[in-house]
Design brief:
Elements: H1 2-5, E1 19-22, H2 32-58, H3 65-93, E2 98-100, H4 101-134, H5 139-142, H6 145-171, E3 180-181, H7 188-192, H8 200-235, H9 238-246, H10 249-267, H11 274-299, H12 301-324
Parallel strand pairs: 1-3
Antiparallel strand pairs: 1-2
């Protein structure tokens, strides 16, 4: 219990600053152009993910368990980029570097919740591919709408809970070393190091969260595809294996785009220049949400056919309206 006593506020006087200062990049000229670039990426992300969600809602053929996960991925991408980018633009383009104490932790909660949910969505899609390829005859029994809804709901509950715990520990610290956060947002690791009392619980969370949110999902996804490859190598021809893996290319692309940059950053955190770290993490926050809908439209046959069908229907309606008028 002594481990948590200081963090839980027993017999200590909290020092809570009125605000934190987010420093962002240091010593880079014309950096505002980078934030304009982030705005462009954000606009593309909003349009792309909104389009994917609209297509899934409008086409009854896409209301399958797999596309429940795809819809949730687009929603988490849209929600996550909307939680990060507008606030970052407000901070750095309009020079609002001072962020109130409570607002900073709210900002952090939404950022980490959505970032974590993106990783767990990829786990749901990996499980869907595993059952579809290895147990095709049992797919409609094992992967039902109810199962996928329950899985997605449990993932949301999990990431909200761990994010609340991580933020809750931070609110029980005294910040008397500094109020300057050397990042582009309210970064968990940067904030707890500003505390002048025992931050051991937050330190534990900084080690535990990457394991739960990044490494375990990645290990599960890699094991899933290794098992798929091993099973197909025993029973399928080369053409059948190629055809099966073509159905996985979109998902594997998302896994690479999401996990590689963020794992490199966490692995070499102490060796990376602070400016390079900010660029890497900020691009990791906005690029996957922008690329995910593009990848699914280009590489997923069902989405392409659905878009073509909806477009033909829209053209047909416009032709009918033009005839009427």
């Amino acid at each position: 219990m002594n481990f948590f006593s200081s963090a839980l506020g027993k017999n200590i006087t909290f020092v809570r600053p009125a605000y934190f200062i987010i420093s962002g990049f240091i010593g880079i000229p014309n950096i505002k152009y980078y934030y304009v670039f982030l705005l462009f990426v954000y606009i593309v992300s909003v349009l792309g993910n909104t389009a994917v969600m609209a297509v899934i809602c409008l086409d009854h053929n896409l209301r399958t368990p797999k596309y429940i996960a795809v819809f949730n991925l687009a929603f988490a991408d849209l929600f996550g980029s909307s939680a990060v980018v507008p606030k970052v633009l407000d901070i750095f383009l309009f020079n609002h570097h001072h962020i109130p104490f409570n607002d900073c932790f709210t900002f952090m909660f939404f950022c980490y919740t959505c970032l974590s949910m993106q990783a767990l969505n990829l786990v749901a899609l990996a499980y869907d591919r595993l059952v579809a390829i290895i147990f095709p005859l049992h797919y409609h029994v094992k992967v039902t709408h109810r199962f996928m809804f329950s899985l997605i709901a449990s993932f949301w509950l999990f990431v909200i809970t761990v994010s609340l715990i991580a933020v809750g520990f931070l609110t029980q610290l005294s910040y008397c070393k500094s109020v300057i956060i050397k990042s582009y947002f309210c970064d968990h690791g940067q904030i707890y190091r500003l505390a002048c009392n025992d931050y051991s619980p937050s330190l534990v969370m900084s080690v535990l969260l990457p394991v739960l949110i990044l490494w375990l999902p990645l290990v599960f996804i890699l094991c899933t595809y290794l098992y798929i490859g091993y099973s197909l190598s025993k029973v399928a021809t080369f053409q059948e294996r190629l055809k099966a893996f073509k159905t996985c290319t979109a998902h594997l692309s998302l896994v690479a785009i999401y996990f590689l940059p963020i794992l490199i950053t966490f692995t070499y955190m102490e060796k990376i220049n602070p400016n390079a770290r900010i660029i890497n993490l900020s691009l990791t926050s906005v690029f996957p949400p922008m690329l995910n809908p593009i990848i699914y439209v280009l590489q997923t046959q069902e989405i392409k056919e659905s878009v073509k069908k909806l477009f033909r229907i829209r053209v047909k309606i416009n032709d009918q309206l033009s005839i009427c008028y």
